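LAB NOTEBOOK - FOLDING QUEUE
OPERATOR: T.R.
BATCH SIZE: 2
PURPOSE: Compare the predicted structure-token outputs for two unrelated chains run back to back under identical settings.
PRIORITY: normal
REVIEWER: second-year student, initials M.K.

ITEM 1
FIELD SEQUENCE / FIELD STRUCTURE:
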Amino acid sequence: MSKNIEFKNRDRFIELGLTIAALRKMQRMSQEQLAEKAKISRSHLSSIEAPNIVRPFSLEVFYNIADALEINPGDLLNFQLPSNKRNK
């Protein structure tokens, strides 16, 4: 079953996936480790984290990932990644 995503939400899913990947790496977890803790497949997590793929996922998966990362779900949504721009 294909899920259509509204255009305005595409960037939100991508940003959330990048945030999950960054937090996972900060905790020195592999995709396999996080996927196991979140009770999802590694390939599902990989597609969520992929910057060029919009992968919608359920709230249950979202909560499982937040719990596995030991972060409040609301904080996961509001987490700000550091900017790539550096002040000189």
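ITEM 2
FIELD SEQUENCE / FIELD STRUCTURE:
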Amino acid sequence: SAAAMLRLPRRWLASFSGPRQRSIEERLTEVFAPVHLEVLNESHGRKQDESHFKVVIVSDSFAGIRLIARHRAVNQSLLDGDGALPFHSLSIAAAKTPEEWSQNQDVPASPKCAGGDGRGMLR
């Protein structure tokens, strides 16, 4: 099952998980059938704002695809009907094949957001 494929770090399980985060997890699972998926709500202030997310995704779907194309595919899979992300910020910390992930599980820290905190978004 899709739920069985998601292995979230214990430190993330206790954090807030809202409807937007669950939607991201479901969509990425549907599109990429990942063997490992982490979606972290990095929203500033209230986590309930659900404006900033960090993704680590490991999937056989990325085999033979360059890194930039992987990132574009992840972004594309999350766009709304208007062709925009339905939240302020998406950091794709890792988009790897299972073989790449088994060799290197390093995940860089997210960059500081310079475009505001996403407050006041209507979506």
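REVIEWER COMMENT (ITEM 2): The radius of gyration is 14 Å.
FOLLOW-UP: none requested
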